[in-house]
Design brief:
single chain, about 325 residues, alpha/beta, Rossmann fold, Alpha-Beta Plaits, 6-stranded mixed sheet, 4-stranded antiparallel sheet, 10 helices, 14 strands, about 35% helix, about 25% strand
Length: about 325
């Protein structure tokens, strides 16, 4: 088996007028990685995932799933689970019937009735679906429907999960269940490629992050790598009793400090992420004869990094 779950080369998608909708020169997703896609517009990320899963055929480029090129990777379908952006369920069927159909279609073999029941029960327990198991999907809430949608993607235990905003429109309880289930799947060595409109969700779950502008993949890496790439700065607030301006000169020579300013009791330091040691900073405060009341570090998040790299904030 190819060590890469997904390999994309020279991908180009055009609209009917010939304008570029999506362009990705190169993308590889090693098996076992959790990769989040984030951008100001969800359209590019959603289209990218649709190309990866074969739902949209590009005008140019190659896409491979575990070494087998699309289209024609049908024999790899049992390795992939898909959470679509919407739909994906038979609304007149119960939750159990939807899970059973997904297992029959995506399963790598013909399971016995007992094996199917065991796999379905595992998903039901993980996503706490028991109260709605015999209820038609049309009669459950959006939050429960999203749980069922994720369950259908995971019931056959895929090695690659491709998820369009797996949280969807859910309540706090369902959000926690969904995130816990996804983390459990990833922690067992499986691969995850997902989109999310909230930077906090991508930042919390992804080990690797892809930043898209309206049409292209513009940066990729860990959050720490992207922070360095964007030259994003962290903010350190040092609170003292008074005469904070006395700290400006001592802290300016610390490694990683870019600039600093002061009010009567607070020094605000802009620095490279992770460069300034708080113990050294506390020593400078003490050496200046000031009373340290507190320190707070505000590190740049994904939304901050995105705004620097792409030049606009995501919604």
């Amino acid at each position: 088996m190819d060590v890469h779950a997904v390999t994309v080369r020279d991908l180009l998608v055009l609209d009917r007028s010939g304008h570029t909708r999506l362009q990705v020169a190169s993308f590889t997703l090693p098996h076992g990685e959790v990769c989040g896609v984030y951008g100001a517009s969800e359209a590019a990320g959603t289209l990218f995932l649709n190309c990866v899963t074969g739902f949209h055929r590009p005008q140019r480029g190659t896409i491979s799933i575990y070494g087998q090129r699309l289209p024609g990777a049908g024999s790899r379908r049992f390795l992939v689970g898909i959470v679509p952006p919407e739909g994906g369920l038979f609304r007149d069927f119960t939750a159990r019937e939807n899970l059973d159909l997904a297992l029959r279609f995506f399963g790598s073999k013909r399971y016995s009735r007992y094996d199917r029941a065991q796999k379905i029960q595992r998903i039901v327990a993980m996503l706490e679906l028991e109260p709605w198991l015999e209820t038609p999907v049309r009669d459950v809430s959006d939050a429960v429907r999203q749980r069922i949608r994720l369950g259908c993607a995971l019931v056959h235990e895929p090695q690659l999960l491709v998820a369009h905003n797996p949280w969807g429109r859910v309540d706090a309880e369902s959000r926690e269940l969904i995130e816990r289930t996804i983390r459990d799947h990833a922690n067992r060595g499986n691969t995850l490629l997902f989109t999310a409109p909230r930077a906090e969700d991508v930042q919390a779950l992804a080990s690797e992050i892809c930043l898209f502008n309206e049409t292209s993949l513009v940066a990729r890496g860990t959050l720490e790598h992207l922070q360095q790439y964007a030259e994003a700065q962290e903010t350190i607030l040092v609170t003292v009793q008074n005469q904070a301006a006395r700290l400006l000169e001592p802290v300016s020579s610390l490694p990683g400090v870019i600039q600093s300013s002061a009010t009567d009791s607070v020094v605000t330091i802009q620095a490279k992420p992770g460069f300034v040691r708080l113990t050294r900073l506390a020593e400078r405060v003490q050496a200046s004869g000031l009373e340290l009341l507190g320190m707070e570090v505000r590190r740049p998040g994904l939304a901050d990094v995105y705004a620097i790299v792409v030049g606009t904030g995501a919604e």
